[in-house]
Amino acid sequence: MSLDLPIHVxxxxxxxxxxxxxxxxxxxxPAGAVVVQGNRIEWVGALSDLPLDYRTAERLEGRGRVLTxxxxxxxxxxVFGGQRIEDWRKRLEGVSYQEIARAGGGILSTVRATREAxxxxxxxxxxxxxxxMLAGGVTTIEIKTGYGLDLENELKQLQVIQRxxxxxxxxxxxxxxxxxxxxxxxxxxxxxxxxxxxxxxIPAAAPHCVAVDAFCESIAFDLAQTERVLRTGLExxxxxxxxxxxxxxxxGARLAARLGAVSVDHLEYLDEAGVRELxxxxxxxxxxxxxxxxxxxxxxxxxxxxxxxxxPLAVATDFNPGSSPLGSLLLAANMAATLFGLTPGEALQxxxxxxxxxxxxxxxxxxxxxGKRADLVCWDCTHPLELIYGIGxxxxxxxxxxxxxxxxxxx
Length: 411
Ligand code: DI6
Ligand code: FE
Description:
The protein is built from 15 helices and 16 strands. The protein has helices spanning 85-92, 97-102, 107-116, 119-135, 151-167, 190-205, 223-235, 252-258, 272-281, 289-294, 303-308, 329-338, 344-350, 353-358, 386-389; strands at 7-16, 28-37, 40-46, 58-61, 66-69, 71-73, 138-144, 171-179, 211-216, 239-244, 263-266, 284-287, 313-315, 376-379, 397-401, 404-407.
């Protein structure tokens, strides 16, 4: 601890530490205090136990308001051109997501718009989305590429993500998703596109991303193609993760778990054998109820089995223009409870500590514990589950990133 950094005591808050204790999944401390020095959390506990050293430090009075860790959105596609209102209209008339994709719409229509857009235009649109999410309490966000699908445009998306990382107070984690769909110029020879991804795009992108992801699905990449992409990601020292079992059961989740994936995401069609493999590998299951809702799916992920086998459950927005134009992580958490059957406590864990685990950042983020980064949100409410219970009706947030106020007001 460096003694010259200023100390702040967040005093008299209802602190949701997100460190579970017995039946209390939120690790709640009523009349709690969090001591922050510089960008680190120094101490967390009941205000009545505050060590003498901190009693004269500057105080921020909570008056019973809720303090949580900064929220973490561990799966988004925030950088894209255009929108997909036309797809949505067709789906409401009964055309399926897969039919639209096979007809050259869907992801490929966003690829066209993203290729046409300048890096500047992509940045401006994504920065605006990110700013709103930050104001809603999201201090860490994973952002994928996947709408470029060639070397130049995947790198263009990564540059935009890196610029967001530099310019936004949020902690931005870039993921390469070049294997999101087969681009039109490779329509008749998808294997050649996988060659391009493995031989050129991953090597060029590796210095600029943390993880490599793919979409294992009938409208995207099969198991063998997915395996090549993930193994190449591993060769380049990247974390791997996978969009798996969203619309059908191809076995992608099992493959990814065996390869050591940090997370597998969606999982509506996962079976119990797959659940066992996730548990054995310690892979996090990332649930994306926004896509389930927006595509009006009916197959729900096997939450009871995942819970019974002890698989960590994270929740994310999957923010993207096609299947989940969802800008609220709190609404994703509400949907995870209402539509998928997570308990409200699990849903809040899913967007804090478990989301940190899905990004392998749980040693420094995701809970209020001494030694972790001082990413906190002060909410204008008195119970932490008010965050999950509301549907688009959220308490004001004062957002603190690395010890500094970056959105809202602390008064
Ligand atoms: N699954 C998803 O939910 C997003 N990508 C994926 O593989 C959707 C992307 C899109 O429809 O634009
Ligand atoms: Fe996704």
